[in-house]
Specification:
108 residues; mainly alpha
């Protein structure tokens, strides 16, 4: 008598990232608004160095948010880019565009 083995894959359910997507999109819109304001402050006869610095920081944050949204679309959101381990949900709640876990020295 032969027994056929069916391959049953048990996978853990994927997390619901919808609230994180909303948070990322909201935070991105806020950053874009703040960057626009900062850039408008630089259009004077003497550019404001602080506003220029703030605009640069906001642009970097927008890029990090876009990268997180790309990871979400690719299905890799929530995994550390450096070691591959899961980023704790608490970290993502505080910094939804975090690309690394807190253990890796390269964590962002």
């Amino acid at each position: 008598m032969t027994t056929a083995l069916s391959s049953v894959r048990t996978t853990s359910p994927s997390p619901d990232w919808a609230p994180f997507r909303v948070a990322l999109q909201t935070q991105r819109a806020d950053c874009v608004d703040q960057r626009t304001l900062a850039l408008s402050e630089t259009v004077t006869s003497v550019p404001d160095a602080v506003a220029l610095g703030r605009a640069a920081i906001l642009l970097r944050t927008i890029e990090e948010i876009d990268a997180a949204l790309d990871r979400m679309d690719a299905g890799t959101y929530g995994a550390c880019l450096h070691c591959g381990s899961a980023i704790p949900p608490e970290r993502l709640e505080l910094r939804p565009f975090a690309a690394g876990c807190v253990i890796c020295p390269q964590a962002s």
